Amino acid sequence: MLILWVPLSFLLGFIISHSVQSSWENWRNGGGEFDKQPHVVFILVDDQGFRDVGYHGSEIKTPTLDRLAAQGVKLENYYVQPLCSPSRSQLMTGRYQIHTGLQHSIIRATQPNCLPLENVTLPLKLKQAGYATHMVGKWHLGFYKRGCLPTQRGFDTFFGSLLGSGDHYSHYKCEAPGMCGYDLYEGEEAAWEQDRGLYSTVMFTQKAISILAKHDPHRKPLFLYLAYQAVHSPLQVPSRYLERYKGISNVHRRKYAAMVSCLDEAIRNLTLALKRYGYYDNTVLVYSSDNGGQPLLGGSNWPLRGSKASYWEGGIRAVGFVHSPLLRNKGTKCRSLIHITDWFPTLVSLGEGTLEEHLNLDGYDVWEAISEGRPSPRHDILHNIDPIYIKAKNGSWKAGYGIWNTAIQAALRVGHWKLLTGIPGYSDWVPPQTFSNQQMGSRWHNEHIRFDRGKSLWLFNITADPYERVDLSQRYPQIVKKMLIRLAQYNKTAVPVRYPAKDLRSNPQYNGGVWGPWYKDEKEEQEEEDRYNNLFSIHLGKRQWKKKSKMRKMKRKAKD
Question: Which one of 28, 216, 410, 555 is most buried, by most CB atoms within 10 A?
Answer without folding.
Answer: 410
